[in-house]
Amino acid sequence: MLPKKSNLVSIIIPVYNRQELISNAIMSVHEQTYRPIECVIVDDGSTDDSVVIIQELQIKLDSDNFSINLFLQDNAGAPSARNKGIKNAKGEFIQFLDSDDLLYPEKLQIQVSFLKEHIECDGVYGDWHHGTVDNYDLIKGEKWDDMLSQFYGRRVIHTLSFLFRRSMILKIGLWDISLKRNQEIDYFLRGVLAGGNFGYLPRVTGLWREHQGERIVSSSGALSALAFYDKWIEEFNRLGIFSANLKKTTAHFLFWHAMDLNNNQSNDAMHYLHKAYKLYKDFPEWNTPKIKVLRLVIGPKRSINYWYKRAKSSKNQKCRTL
């Protein structure tokens, strides 16, 4: 990271082909009641007019206490773009913002004030809206005593809601560019394991926006998500903290994503279902009278394979009770 400037908030925005939405994201930053701010925007090889739009706003909005710093790179994914942003950020506080989301005007003012008052906190998060500008749901951030379990999947916090101290970012390090899904969860978990103390302020911070370009769940996406859980199974075991609660959470996600895989990925699916069963054996689907008998006769592995093939052959592709 570049030398720190006191009180400055660096807002890191990765961009890829967001010509329809990037100006809204930048303007939501410019409309913050807080100053000083720098937008560290990293274009990840856009092929549309995103860069042109950013450059126009750069000329229009740059001032003594608000700047847009644009960096270009070949397409390498959002984590790589965020890492480039981290390396070029000068702020005492760091905010990550996706190029299709919006911050509400008082977000930074409220959270910077909180961190200055609560010097024991390494970061702070709040609530957020999810939906469109005109139609959205309120999502509560909450704070649990067990933040590892909270961030791991029981109560995931959206990226836009967080504001970090620079010192915390230095402890966490860079984003994991090998992950294609759940990079944010990975980053926040690493923050907890790095000793981060994160405060919760129940104020609505911004809009996690749904739009026509929203990503859809695919079989490749499911495999990418499963790779994330592979990483954290290994990490939890390495650290000796793989509790029964974490195992149960992991097993449910392995089950869910395995069932999203296509029929031609059945070997992968059954591999992860077996993994899920080893972590948590009390799935209702695998404890019906028929499956219990099969488990005694042919063993857990073959009984799960049988259940999987029957479930995937059902017309609506949903797991059915046998």
From TrEMBL:
CDD domains per record: Glyco_tranf_GTA_type
GO molecular function: hexosyltransferase activity
Pfam families the record matches: Glycos_transf_2 (PF00535)
InterPro entries attached to this UniProt entry: Glyco_trans_2-like, Nucleotide-diphossugar_trans
Recorded superkingdom: Bacteria
Ranges for domain Glycosyltransferase 2-like: 10-155
Keyword list, A-Z: Transferase
UniProt-listed PANTHER family: GLYCOSYLTRANSFERASE (PTHR22916), UDP-GLCNAC:BETAGAL BETA-1,3-N-ACETYLGLUCOSAMINYLTRANSFERASE-LIKE PROTEIN 1 (PTHR22916:SF3)
Protein name: Glycosyltransferase family 2 protein
